Amino acid sequence: MYQKLVIVGNLGRDPDKRYTPDGTPSCSFSVAVNKAWTTKDGQQHKQTVWFAVTAWRRLAEVCEQYLHKGDLVLVEGELREARAWQGRDGEWNASLEVTPSLVKFLPKSRGDGDGGQAAQPLQADDEGQVHPIEVGDAMDEDSIPF
To answer: What is the CATH topology of the domain spanning 5-143?
Structure first.
C-alpha cells in the first residue's frame, strides 16, 4: 500500500530540534493550511487545518537550519495518524501528524517587506540533500498521482 500527502502552508512556530537517546535528530514544527471561500449569499468563511510535522535524521537538521515561524513550505510525506484532543473551549479537534520525505522552502510573497526580492526556493529530501527548485520542478504531468 502507498499513500502520499502534499500540503502547502505556513509554519506556526519555529522548528524544535531534539535527539533520541541513540542520538538520532528529529525536528518538529507545525504547518497551517488556510482556506477561504465565499458562499452564494456573500458570507466569507475561513478555515485553518494544522499539521504536526516531524522530520528525522539529516532532513531534521536541514529543516531546523532553514525554517522559521511564518515561512511558506510545501511538505510531501506520509500521514502517520490523527489524534483527537479537546481544547480549552470544550471543542474537539484533530491533530494530523506527518512524516515528510520532502520539504520545499518556498519564497516569500512580494508583500513580505523584502522589497520583492524573494529568496531562491529550495527543497530538501529525506536524505537531507538541499538544492534549488528549478522552474519546471514545481509540477509536471509525471508527478500527478492519477
So the answer is: OB fold (Dihydrolipoamide Acetyltransferase, E2P) (2.40.50)
